[in-house]
Every structure is written in structure tokens, then in C-alpha cells.
Amino acid sequence: MIKIGPVSIDKFSARESELKRLDKIQSDYLSGYRRNLAVLGPWSIGKTSLMLKFIHDRLDPDLFPIYLNLEDGFLKESFFGFLLYSLRSSSLKDNNYSLDSVGDSAVAIEKEYPQLAPVIKNIESGHKNNNYLAIMDSILRLPDIVKKKFGKNCIFIIDEFFSLDKLKVSSWMQILRDHIMLDKHTLFVLISSEIERSKSVLNSEFSLLFGNFEIIELDNFSYQESIDFTQSRLGSIKIQEHNLTEKMIALTNGLPLYLDILTSWIDENADIFDWQTLIVMLKEVLLNNKGFLYRYFSEKLRVVPGDDKFQEFLPFVTEVARGNTKKRELKKKDFSYATCNYSMNGFLEKNGSFFRIKDPLFRIWLLCAYNADLMGLKLSSELKEEMLAREIQAVGSPLNIFLNSDNVENMVTRLILNFDNEFIEIEGKKRQLPKILTVKNLFQYQTFSAFQADKEKAGRWLFVVIRSEFQEQDTYSLLESLQSKDFKFNQKIAVMPQREDSNISLILKTKGFWVWDMKLINRIIEFYGLSRDF
């Protein structure tokens, strides 16, 4: 199994707003107001890195950190290693001690801190006898011992806490719930890649705690965070073409893991970053069956449906990668998985009437590498490179064209004429994209324009395209124009590809508009498989 650990502290990037939220939670706790925390996000998004960065750089010396990583099962060496690190840091026995010099940590703890020897022996005995209830009980008693021996409250981090399901502790949720409720001198942090399940548990099994439980949900880096990350990593590398950094960000979708892998490869193997460097890099890490991302994707592709269903699942996910995203079309092809809910840990998205490969690199790997290898096709290096270049060119292009286009209205018209009564789900609400027959211009101003889209079975939609020069006062001019002409619409859409003004969005939403920002526009383009058509 491929192991991906947290990024080293010195390479940690972005997440400043999340670190500030952790600062506030810590400050409130030290002042007597406890808010336990859940850190949620897709696998490899940087949840562990965030918490380790906080502990290393910003944890108050009055708090004692306990870190339990359950990703690969109970009682890894890292648990004892981290505990020894925390003990030595708290007692200042060795100022130069680091996690890299752990060694046999359990033995060291028993020797240096004999008051903890009984707990260590209980944990090791439980591990030897596969008595996970005894292990869990011993570990959860540690904060009480730390409070008595060191006079410190604890921050207790349980990483991938749903892994407790795999262990033989039938009542783990009740045990954990009791400790969270009763251990007032402990601030609990639960980390999980199972986002929706975590939210459900916090709202059900931990319902009495929900008002006292805060959630930090990590997503991919924003565009600006990705730019800053890339520039910091490639500071000494000469970038030959202006749009290459943007192209790499589009390919990685701002995922920290991918940005780390690709920028590290460039830093280690190139003096300049040009188009050929990008191609060579992706051929090595993505298309070569010994490359990291090739092996990583191969493993994830098999793990999700399980080996017994893999042969059924592969044709379905490959068809989605090819651009056949509509659920009804996939069902016509008798793909049973068109009714499934597999997310492939963030790779695959089911949204309303559509499926979508969320991960551009995974999609390219499926089409250019894995599928060809599986079919025994001996593609030449030149052909693979040609396929790779074509797929790379398509990634991220629609959004960039929208942002730079002088005729956004024409592009919006082309997009909505593809609607065919499909559904999409946005922020928990299901919305229909009706079949549009005709589109006509209503009025046009310097900062915005409006046009009417007539639906197939009576009724009409209003689309207002907001330009970059649009200001908050223009919102009222727009609303007055609509009111004076007494227009009646089934739905009003404000298209804002060049604006991210929350105030303008809020005003329009209160007036019944559905606001389309850059992210939503690009998603709809992907749903309809139009990436190459714009």
C-alpha cells in the first residue's frame, strides 16, 4: 500500500485562516470555554498536516498534545513516539528532541516516566492479545494521568476516528462520546476523510455535544493559495511560459498532495519549467506504471468497489472519464453502477443527473495510461504524448476563456442551449436545468446585460451577465430596470464569472437570484462534457 505522510513542517503552506480558527478555539478553551473540534476533508487534503503544524508552531505550552493515528490500525509506533515527544517537550528533558529520533519509544517512556509504565504495559498487553477495548480504555485515561502528573490539560487528536469500526470494540462510539462529554480538562479533535458520515454522527450519536462541537472542513487550495504555493516551491526555477503555472493548478485542482508531487519533481529535475518539462513530468509520474501517481491511482481504483466488483466498475468509470456523464445515458448502456453512490474518496462525483470525474489527473490517467495498459494496447511514446497533450490542453480552459472573453453573453448562451431537463444539486438543493428553445437579448449596459431564455414547455428564465466593472450600486440599477419593465420569470440567474463580491451576491440572492460563480460555471461545463468545445 502506498503511504502518504503529512508534509514536513518547513514545507507546510497556506491554511492561515484555518490556523487562526484553531488559535481562537485554543484561546477560548484556555479561558474556560470548550469547543471540541472535527477536522474534515477528502483523503490527502492536509488534515493531519494542519494539526501537526498547529501543534508544532502554535500550541500553548499549557496544553499537552496526544495524537492517535488510526489510519492504519491501532498502536503504531507513531503513537508512542508522539507521546514521548510530548512528554519530553513538557518536562524539558531534551530541548533538541524531535520526532525523527523516536527509536523504541515505549521502552523510553517506561524508563524516563515510570509513573506511566502501568499504562504502557496495559496498552502493549492489549495489543498482544488483540484486546482493543483495553487499549482504547488505557489511551483514553491518559489525559487524566497527564492532568495529575503534569498539571496540564490535553488536546487529544484522533486521526481517522472511523477506523475504530474495523477494530473489535463494539461500543467505541459510546465510549468516545462519554469521554468527550465528561473529560472537561481535554479538548478533543476528531479527524476524518468521511465528511458526510462525520457530520451525521456529530448530529446524532454526539447530538448532545453538537452545540459545543466546531467543524473545520478543508478543501483544495484556492487559486491564490495554489499560486503562492507554486511560486514558493519553484522560486529558483525559470518559468518559460506565463500560463504554465495556471495549467498545473488546473490539472491538480489545487490539491496540496498533487502540487507537492509535481513541484518537487520540477525542483529536482529541471532548471526551467516549460511545456516540454510539463509533458515529461506527467509521463514519468502519471503514465509510467512505476510512477507515483500511476501506482496511487491504481490502488484507489481497486480499493473503492472491492476486487469482486472491480470488473463491473471499471467500464463505468472509464465511460464517465470519456465524457459520457449523464445518468440516463449511462443507464441506457446498462451500466449498473449508474445507480451507485461510490465517490472513490473524492475522485468521482454523483450530482443530480450527472456523474463527473472530479480529479483531472485521475481522468487523464484513466484515458491515457491505465485503460490502454489494461487492454494490452502497445501505444507508442509519441501517441501517448499526443493523447496526454490533448487532455492537458482541455483542462481548465473553459474557465480561463470565460474570464478573458469579450463576449461572455455568447458563451453563456452556448452553454444553456445544452440543457435538457437535467438536475444538479447545489448546496443541498436540487435544481433543474430545463431544455431551452430560444435565447434573446433584453437590454445591455456597460457593466451588465440581460437576456431571456424560453423553456421548452412554456415559461422563461432570466440570465444577467455581471461584468468585472460591476459595482454594488449597479445592483440597484439592475433591479430597477427589471422592475420598470415588469418582467416575469420562472427563474432569475446572475452569472458572475469575473466577480467574487459576496455583498453583490447576497443582495441578488435576497431578490430571488440564483448566483453562478466561477466554480459553478466550470462544473456545469464539465457535467455537459463541453471542455473542448469552448
Describe the model.
This protein has 534 residues and is α/β, with parallel strands linked by helices. Helices cover 48% and strands 16% of the residues. It contains 23 helices and 16 strands. The chain has a five-stranded parallel beta sheet with strand order 2-3-4-1-5, with helices on both faces. The longest helix has 15 residues, at 16-30. It is globular. The model is unreliable at 94-103 (pLDDT under 50).
Write the layout of secondary structure elements.
Blueprint: H1 16-30, E1 36-40, H2 47-58, E2 63-69, H3 77-91, H4 105-112, H5 117-128, H6 132-140, H7 142-150, E3 153-159, H8 172-182, E4 186-192, H9 195-202, E5 213-217, H10 223-233, E6 238-239, H11 244-252, H12 256-269, E7 272-273, H13 275-287, H14 292-303, H15 310-321, H16 327-332, E8 348-351, E9 354-357, H17 360-374, H18 381-394, H19 397-404, H20 408-416, E10 422-426, E11 429-433, E12 436-444, E13 448-455, E14 460-466, H21 472-484, E15 491-495, H22 502-510, E16 513-516, H23 518-527
Parallel strand pairs: 1-4, 1-5, 2-3, 3-4, 6-7, 14-15, 15-16
Antiparallel strand pairs: 8-9, 10-11, 12-13, 13-14
Helix pairs in contact: 3-4, 5-6, 6-8, 10-12, 13-18
How many DSSP E strands? 16
Helix content: 40-55%
What is the averaged pLDDT score? 83
Fraction in beta strands: 15-25%
What's a concise summary of this model?
This protein has 23 helices and 16 strands. By secondary structure, the chain is an alpha/beta fold. The strands form five sheets. It has a five-stranded parallel β-sheet, with helices on both faces.
